[in-house]
Design brief:
The chain is of the alpha+beta class. It is built from 3 helices and 2 strands. It is elongated.
Length: about 70
Amino acid sequence: MIVPETDIQIVSNEAGEPTAVIVPIALWKAIASERETAYLLKSENMRQRLRAALQRQSGVTLEDAVAKLGL
């Protein structure tokens, strides 16, 4: 995701030193998602599970899951 630099705001203290950044929520969500993925990939076990999930070709539809759970 590319966000124009004008969408990012830098907050400074009284001395003019940058202390914080305000970013669009879409960018923040993308950053959070990348951090979560990086965290999960630190574990070899989780890395293997994620790879297996990516290769899986079958699954259960939402409707079938709801029916099976009786919801």
